[in-house]
Amino acid sequence: MSAPNCYLFEHQYAILQQIEGYELFQSDFGKFPLSIGLKKSKSLPKSPFGGPLIQNGNKSDLFQWLDQIISQVRSKTGQIEITLPISIYPTMEVDWMLEYGFKKKFSDTSHYVDLIGFSESQLHNMELRKLRSSSFDMELLQLSKVEMIHSFIAQCRQSQDLEINTSLESLIAQITAFPESYLFYVAKSKGQLAAVCIITLPVDNIAYYFLPATHPEFKSDSPMVSLMVYMYHHLKEKGIKYLDLGISSIEGAPQESLILFKEHMGGVRTNRHTLTIDL
After folding, report:
1. What's the whole-model pTM score?
2. What CATH number should be reported for the domain whose range is 115-239?
């Protein structure tokens, strides 16, 4: 047995993201990151996919390990809140955590794409027509284009009265520290950016759909459809098995249009659970 590797659990990442009270508990089979606060400790804030990871751990070993972790943090905090990664990640069974004593706080709708089994026939007819009529050029950009990419995403979000939740300085710092964990994909029309997506690679064989954006001028042409299919094929060629499309709800409240789009793009629906235990 060996604990899964994940750059998001590195202490350097916690420093870059200003995660307070960060501690990483490790065993032969798992990693359990915690941001320890007086009233509540979380696993893991600012991690796109969630918290603890285990590799081939059995229930008995897991329970003993949880006992050890809780005994170490009981005097520092009143509650532990964890977000379990979805089932494509090496993580705990939610039923085991409930049996241990955790309680379900909420469940978010999430989606992923099985890149190995993907074919374009899985797309909804509308998205398939968009793909076949597309005239966009796809490209994998160098990470040195980070300022241009961030500016484009920020402008697209601003057009929807939204803010990008990662500052340029933070993104540059993350990419500088972990350059092998980021990819920039773009769709262009006659040299102009139409859509972009930042992909991050949190663990072996899994990519995460981190920061997508479409220019409002090209919205009706759906360049993201062509870009996502391009990413599916390119990531598969790199040996990636799954693309995590992230959650489509806010603390359990579904975002129906986002759910529909991801499922039209071949996304498989699943749940990402957030659990708590009082100490």
Report:
1. 0.95
2. 3.40.630.30
